[in-house]
Design a protein that fits this description.
CATH architecture of the largest domain: Sandwich
Number of strands: 19
Radius of gyration: 20 Å
InterPro entries: DUF4179 (IPR025436), DUF5643 (IPR040680)
Structural class: mainly beta
CATH superfamily of the largest domain: bacillus anthracis domain
Strand content: 35-45%
Largest sheet: 9 strands, antiparallel
Protein name: DUF4179 domain-containing protein
Distance between the termini: 32 Å
Keywords: Membrane, Transmembrane, Transmembrane helix
Length: 358
C-alpha cells in the first residue's frame, strides 16, 4: 500500500510521510491529516486509494456571511470542474443513474465549500466536495502552529428526514491548487430506513481559530434530496457463513457478499466484541484468474462490520468466477501512534462462488 494514501483510524496517528505520493508537499500533508483527525469518528476504520479526474461544470453559488470576497469566488469558478466520485475512487463503471449532482457552494469567513455530488449505497452516503480558502493553504495551515485550527474542519452533523444521526466517516483528500482541497468521504448512516426520497442536511463546522468544531450553524450547510432505490435494485448478493476470530476473542461472521456499480462489499456480524484491543482486518487472496484481491474493513463496531473491495490492484475482474480469501489482522497501537503492526492470519481460507450472485 505504499503507492496509495490510506486513512488509518481507531485512534492511530496518520503518518502521511509513510506514503510515497509525490504530488503532496508538507503543507498538504498537514492539511489532510488535520481534516481527517477532526472529522472522523474514532470507532470507525477506513482506507481507500485515490484516483482523481474532473469534468467542467457551471456552479450554482450561494454566498452569505462576511469576509468572502470576490477573489475566493473567482478561484472556485476557475476549478476545472467537479471531481466525480467514480473517477476519484477508481471506479470504472458509469454511476450517472445513481448519483445526485448538487453543484452548490456556500461561503463563510473566507472559506468556500462546494458540494459536488452524492451517492446513497445501502447504509452509506458518499459525498464529493471542494474547500477553497481566500488565502493560500500555506497561510491557513501555518507549519509553526502547534495545532492546526485555522481551517474548516468538515461536516459535523448529518440529519435525514429531520432525524440527526451519529455517523462515522472515512475517505481521501488532495489539493488541486494552492487554495483548494478536494475530498471524497463516505458516511456510515447505521441501521436506518433509507428507502424512497430522503431530505438530507449537512451542517458545517465554524471557521476560525479556536472555534468549537462541534458547534452547529443551521445557516452554514447544505440541504438536498437524494434516493438510493435504483442502486439497491441493481445490487446483487450471495449469502455467506464464514467465521474467524481475532486474538482478543472478537468473532466475525461473514453474512453476505454484495456487488453493484460502486464495487463489492461483505457484511459481517460481530460477537464477543472487545474494547481492550482493536485491529485492522483485511480479507486477502486471489480470483480464479490469478489476480490479487483484498477487502479492507470500512467500519467495524459491536453492531457489525463492513468490508469493501480495495482497488489498489485494480477493479475486480468481471470475468472472475470465484474468489479465494483468507482473513488477516494487525493490532493497532495501544496509544496513538504509527500503525506498524504485522498482519497475521486469523482464520481459514474460504471461497466465494460468484456465479451465485442474484
Amino acid at each position: 500500500m505504499k503507492d496509495d494514501i490510506y486513512t488509518m483510524l481507531n485512534e492511530a496517528d496518520i503518518n502521511i510521510d509513510d506514503y510515497k505520493k509525490e504530488d503532496f508537499n508538507d503543507i498538504e500533508k498537514k492539511n489532510i491529516k488535520a481534516n481527517f483527525k477532526k472529522s472522523i469518528s474514532k470507532k470507525k476504520s477506513h482506507k481507500r486509494s485515490m484516483v482523481v479526474a474532473g469534468v467542467v461544470i457551471a456552479l450554482t453559488v450561494i454566498l452569505f456571511g462576511t469576509n468572502t470576497g470576490v477573489e475566493a469566488l473567482t478561484r472556485v469558478l476557475k476549478i476545472a470542474g467537479i471531481q466525480e466520485i467514480g473517477s476519484f475512487m477508481g471506479i470504472q463503471k458509469n454511476l450517472d443513474d445513481y448519483k445526485t449532482v448538487i453543484n452548490k457552494a456556500i461561503s463563510n469567513n473566507g472559506v468556500t465549500v462546494q458540494l459536488n455530488e452524492v451517492i446513497l449505497d445501502g447504509q452509506e452516503l458518499t459525498v464529493s466536495y471542494n474547500v477553497t480558502y481566500d488565502k493560500k493553504l500555506s497561510e491557513v495551515y501555518d507549519e509553526k502552529l502547534s495545532k492546526v485550527d485555522k481551517g474548516w474542519h468538515g461536516f459535523n452533523c448529518i440529519s435525514i428526514n429531520g432525524k440527526e444521526l451519529n455517523t462515522g466517516n472515512g475517505g481521501g483528500s488532495r489539493s488541486i491548487d494552492d487554495y483548494t482541497i478536494q475530498t471524497v468521504l463516505t458516511y456510515n448512516l447505521g441501521k436506518q430506513d433509507l428507502s424512497g426520497d430522503l431530505d438530507i442536511k449537512l451542517s458545517c463546522s465554524p471557521v476560525g481559530e479556536n472555534e468549537d468544531i462541534n458547534k452547529k450553524d443551521e445557516n452554514w450547510g447544505f440541504e438536498f434530496n437524494t434516493n438510493g432505490d435504483q442502486l439497491k435494485v441493481d445490487t446483487k448478493e450471495i449469502a455467506l457463513d464464514n467465521k474467524f476470530t481475532l486474538e482478543n476473542g472478537t468473532e466475525y461472521t461473514l453474512q453476505k457478499y454484495t456487488d453493484n456499480s460502486l464495487g463489492q462489499k461483505m457484511y459481517a456480524s460481530i460477537s464477543n466484541f472487545q474494547m481492550e484491543s482493536t485491529y485492522d482486518v483485511s480479507l486477502k487472496g486471489t480470483d480464479d484468474l490469478g489476480n490479487e484481491v483484498e477487502f479492507y474493513i470500512s467500519h467495524g463496531w459491536k453492531e457489525g462490520a463492513l468490508f469493501k473491495i480495495e482497488n489498489i490492484h485494480g477493479n475486480l475482474n468481471e470475468n472472475a468466477k470465484t474468489l479465494t480469501l483468507t482473513p488477516y489482522a494487525a493490532k493497532y497501537p495501544e496509544k496513538s501512534g504509527r500503525m506498524d503492526g504485522e498482519y497475521k492470519k486469523t482464520g481459514d481460507e474460504f471461497t466465494i462462488d460468484l456465479s451465485q450472485l442474484k
